[in-house]
Amino acid sequence: MSIEVLMPALSPTMEKGNLSKWLKNEGDAIKPGDVIAEIETDKATMEVEAVDEGVLAKILVPAGTNDVPVNQLIAIIAAEGEDVSKAGSAPTAAPVAVAAPAAAPAVHASVPATAHPDIPAYDASGEIPHGTEMVPQTMREALRDAMAEEMRSNESVFVMGEEVAEYQGAYKITQGLLQEFGPRRVIDTPITEHGFAGIAVGAALTGLRPVLEFMTFNFAMQAIDHIINSAAKTLYMSGGQMGCPIVFRGPNGAAARVGAQHSQDYSAWYSNVPGLLVVSPSNAADAKGLLKAAIRNPNPVVFLENEILYGQTGMVPKMDDFVLPIGKARIARTGKDVTIVSFSIGMTYALKAAEELATLGIEAEVIDLRTIRPMDVDTIIASVRKTGRCITVEEGWPQSGIGSEISAQVMEKAFDYLDAPVIRITGKDVPMPYAANLEKLALPNVGEVVEAARAVTYR
Amino acid sequence: MAVAAKAGSQNKSSPGKAGAARGARSLTRRTNGPVALSKDEEVSAYRDMLMIRRFEEKAGQMYGMGLIGGFCHLYIGQEAVVVGMQMASAKGDQVITGYRDHGHMLACGMDPKGVMAELTGRSGGLSRGKGGSMHMFSVESNFYGGHGIVGAQVSLGTGLAFANHYRNDGRVSMTYFGDGAANQGQVYECFNMAELWKLPVVYVIENNRYAMGTAVSRASAQTDFSKRGVSFNIPGEQVDGMDVRAVKEAAERAIQWCRDGKGPYILEMQTYRYRGHSMSDPAKYRSKDEVQKMREEHDPIEQVRRRLIEEWKISEDELKAVDSHVREIVNAAADFATTNPEPDPSELYTDILR
Ligand SMILES: Cc1ncc(C[n+]2csc(CCOP(=O)(O)OP(=O)(O)O)c2C)c(N)n1
Ligand SMILES: [Mg+2]
């Protein structure tokens, strides 16, 4: 019985990779555990191991092939004693192919595949000069460019964090920065979040402008004392003498299948703190314009990114200096029937739901907060006065969440305009489970948003 | 490259030395190399390390097949550390570690099926599918996790020792962490309290030379981790963590120190991880040659295997029998982990409070 070797995934978010090298030739004997090939993505390399004994009968994807989809057949191993020439013609069901009955990572099923979707248009509502050329870029590249541009124009800006320099960033956001700016300004730290956050805050108190990367915001909990007690409160405590121009940035919220300790959304946590600005972009252009603004801002900014969005491509204005205002929401889609407010990855659910609602004849207005603190309440209220309905969407927990705050604001400022109660769509009120099926249930989905919109519009 | 030098010299001289030690193995006297193991001990070390190796290889394969998701940190190369430690520890002693935890669980005697099914996120997993690779626990086996936050287990492990001291029950906490974790601030807060209060904890620093892509020398001002307790008066030793005999011998000393009420003890295990940090790894921060050299010259399993054949005259067939027994167990675990159902959707809301 021959065995099919499929293109493996390095991570649940991987969709394709390059087959860089075959380490065995056709006809070679293979033992379980033997490395037969090397595959590669922009982030990592991995060795493909044989699962069973046999002979490498056929190589179906030659070395050097790029963009091989996960689960594509790449080789066939013939069982010992089997006729190699016959193998490959009719491979039987094989151990490797048994893969992923239930565990197929359908986690963010509602998120568009990053590959080459139609790149969403970016309507900047007057934030970009008319006629500006737009170029496609991933959020990853946009963030990197934002840092690089600010580092070029201001000597005080430096980047610090775990694996940001030589490794080029755990999620490759700082790619190329060490090469351009050198180790004085792109600094690898030991795994010591509390300590290096304090060091960066101290440096910022003297007027330097650190951009501090947390490998993920889950690890910023080690450092949260400095973010809140040292960075956010010093200006006030010093009677306005001593500011803290620092950016704390990194991926926030759930990635995929990384479990409870690596999947928390901290938007609401930082949103609670006076003295902080909190930004959380949903697309490449906003990421670029807002990160540049954050680096220039004289206050501590918590800049919450999202790992799943890093690889997504958006249109980014080609400008020498594209800076967006902090504290201003963006109307991502106009409509008259219901207002959907979201931010970051929540926007993918919100926009998909709006499309579905359109087919039902419900016109949703979708607001991307972009900045969580200060919140652009005016834009929300203006929209709710028009639609009379409001739904919030976020991956974080329900109690005291961003949706709770929006709901309170709407009640205080637009109560008389409401035709239905505000509905909060949130992550479920549980630590993130690891099991694929439970993780899917724990996250919000497009269906929930659509249902909520139908409920508040009574349709 | 202390590991290389040490292990190399032992290998050269081991047959004669071990032969001498064999006759006198009831003595605690140290020969030039580490104290030799008995035949039974060698066989069981071989089997236990092989179990971890095969289990991890299988986990790596299953990850590639999409059956395991998220992060998956393999222990391949470091097997002698936890196996040697367990040989010296007693029932009731606790174990706690970080996210590179599969080997520790197997060494604690936890069911390979339950571990593998947790990796695949199934209802039969040790955390019923809710924890995943990095988060598993066993009250029965005194295994306290499985922690995803680098360094957190050091404080928790010190807390286990606090409880032992409080109850005066003679137990010792084996608290494992990496060379990278050793730089976290909470480690030193705990070192201070552990020594101040004479808590029975063995801090096992698994120095595998890298924290993700960062070599020890790029992250640590003091790269001799056995000295990390000096300013707190905690004794420490550097141990050849590729040699299960050396690990066991040092572990006995450290554990006895703790049981005697003398406080904490630090063991820096000089070891090596063959695989990437997690499944995805840029593999650019070290050379292929370096990895190859470690595998060929210092493999912890191969060292035992060689002694079993050369000194204990165990036949290839006998070893093959051990191999296939291990493989059967691992295959059964993989089958279970593939066919076992996912947790019931109602499980989403259970176990949040009790
Ligand atoms: C507080 C915290 N910071 C960062 C991380 C991300 N991270 C996970 S493992 C790791 C490297 C740890 O290296 P080491 O302690 O040497 O252990 P090893 O992986 O080598 O076993 C890092 C930085 C984390 N999980 N927790
Ligand atoms: Mg390490």
Classify the secondary structure makeup of chain A into a structural class.
Answer: alpha/beta
Helical stretch tally of chain B: 12
Q: Tell me the Rg of chain A in angstroms.
A: 24 Å
CATH topology of chain B: Rossmann fold
User: In CATH, what is the class of chain B?
Assistant: Alpha Beta
Q: N- to C-terminal separation of chain B?
A: 50 Å
Give the CATH H-level superfamily of the largest domain in chain A: Thiamin diphosphate (ThDP)-binding fold, Pyr/PP domains
Poorly predicted residue ranges of chain A: 87-117
- Average pLDDT metric of chain B: 92
Largest sheet of chain A: 7 strands, mixed
Alpha carbon gap, first and last residue of chain A:
57 Å
Mean pLDDT over the full residue set of chain A: 90
Report the sheet with the most strands of chain B, covering strand number, pairing sense and barrel closure. Answer: 5 strands, parallel
For the biggest β-sheet of chain A, the strand order reads: 11-10-12-13-15-14-20
Q: What is the CATH class name of the largest domain in chain A?
A: Alpha Beta
Estimate the global geometry of chain A from the Cα principal axes.
Answer: globular
